[in-house]
Amino acid sequence: MEDELSWHNEFYRNVLLNIDEEILRPLFVDGNMGAPTKQLRILIAMRMLKEGRGCSDEQLYENVRFNLVWRQAVGLFNINDECPSIDSYYMLFRRIAEYEQNNPEHANLYKKIYQDLTAKQIKKYKIAGRTIRMDSKLIGSNIAWFSRYEIIHETFRKQVPEQEAMRISDQLYRQKALDFLAEDASKTVYRSDDETLGQRLLDLGIVISHILAMRGEGEVSLLHRVFHEQYDVDKDGNITVRDKKLVSATSVQNPNDPDAAYRSKGGKKVKGYSTNITETCDEEDKPSLITDVQVKPANAADNGFLKDAVEDTRKVTDNSIDKVIVDGAYQSKENRNLASDEENGFELVANGLQGKPSRFDLELQDDGSLEVTDKQTAEVITATKVKDGQWKIAVESPKGKKSYRYFDNEAIERSQNRQRMETIPWEERKKRNNVEATIFQYCFLTRNNKTRYRGLFKQTLQALARCAWINMRRLFIFDVKAANLALQKA
User: Fold this and answer.
1) What is the pLDDT along the chain (490 residues), one digit of tens a residue?
2) pTM of the model
3) Fewer beta carbons under 10 A from the terminal one: N or C of the chain?
4) How far, in Å, CA of 138 to CA of 307, rounded?
């Protein structure tokens, strides 16, 4: 129990004592019932324990009440020290969610606590953090995989109470609405052919349109969103089912989690979120700590994470960033411009570029001419200028037919970026691979890469708490190794 190298004492020392309760002060102002009776840092630390050990709320409270090791981890050293009530636990995170919803310009308060906690750990262990690496992971939401008809139908059932359907004046619309409310959508999908299901989709859209018209234009609800994502209305008011190829990946995938988005990557289809994790990696004799965690809907592009990850890491490490190691998905013109900034620039080390490598290497000469190297034949060709910013070369196909291949400034820039990437030493490029271990640890307790949560806010809390636990474990392992090394030297 008193062993300084036990995980619970490490958690108490490097996590609980470093949680700054003042960050949560905006939640507790005059007139909103005040603060919980117990220390807020215990409630914050309990969330990290929960995601670290992969337990339910019930198991968490059972352990914090009766397990002496868990109690010591959260600072309950005496047998008569009371555990915070579960009402206080839920109230705190409910208030954090409400605060973020009402103050979208401010960062998530739980993320602020995470950043402050990590900054203290980095300062204590003297981690520079000038070189970072990052990767993202698609995580499924805790929702059923609905068909298109089920999405619309379930939204209708959740958003339209039977009393509202009974108030429809038109008897035909009223009866159809009641029939849809009583229907089991999964059974309808199972027993219907495409033509029948298409007609029911249209009928359901007409009923929803009628109900939205009854409610008035001023009300924007989830039903309103789903209708305008799945149907088209022409200038005469005629309703048609939108072509499924035109339905956005950001559309509602399940009414139980409107924040989740759809994405297909590497043959895997996900309805949920993308979590981006950034960690330090510049010192072999120091632990790598996760400095930034971002969660966005699954269709978010990886290159959209880089700017915020770099800026937030600067705040946490209180140092400039010299090198960022990523994969090809983080390449973009905006990110290359960010890296080349004179004041806050950094070396962007990417181990690849998205897309199939070109057959040709392009080199723009000082006189404005373009030299094209055919990597298949090693032939160097001077391209013919078609107009400003465009060149062409003659290419002969395997069948002997001659055609022209055109290049523009974007193709030249892409070729030069690929050539620069290929000159990066392999020792530098392979450093990114180790972030895969962090991604593995992050989703280790998920089931088929699917969490038990719904909604962007809860997914973010889970990611932050899980990464706080990973940081603690890395510091714990580092301290154990350091102690063993000191014993060997003694």
Assistant:
1) 888 889 999 999 999 999 999 999 888 876 555 666 568 999 999 999 999 999 999 999 999 999 999 999 999 999 899 999 999 899 999 999 999 988 877 778 999 999 999 999 999 999 999 999 999 999 999 999 999 999 999 999 999 999 999 999 999 999 999 999 999 999 999 999 999 999 999 999 999 999 999 887 666 689 999 999 999 999 888 999 999 999 999 999 999 999 999 998 877 899 999 999 999 997 788 999 999 999 999 999 999 999 999 999 999 999 899 999 998 888 888 988 899 888 888 988 887 666 667 778 888 887 778 888 887 777 888 888 888 888 888 887 766 677 888 888 878 777 777 767 666 666 666 666 788 899 999 999 998 889 999 999 999 999 999 999 999 999 999 999 999 988 888 7
2) 0.87
3) C
4) 19
Q: How far apart are CA 182 and CA 51, in angstroms?
A: 39
Helix 86-102 and helix 57-66: axis angle, to 10°? 130
Closest by CA to 311, choosing from 26, 52, 115, 65, is 115
Measured in whole angstroms, the distance separating CA 97 from the mean position of its chain's CA atoms is 17
Rounded CA gap, 349 and 328, in Å? 9
Q: How far apart are CA 345 and CA 310, in angstroms?
A: 10
Whole-number CA gyration radius for the chain: 28
Q: In this structure, what is the dihedral angle of CA atoms 300, 205, 180, 173, given to the nearest 10 degrees? A: 150
Mapped onto helix, strand or coil, the DSSP state of residue 240 is strand
Give the H or E element holding residue 150.
Answer: helix 148-159
In whole angstroms, what is the distance from residue 438 CA to residue 465 CA? 14
Helix crossing, 171-182 with 194-215: angle to 10°? 120
Q: Which tokens in the block code for residue 474?
A: 């890395």
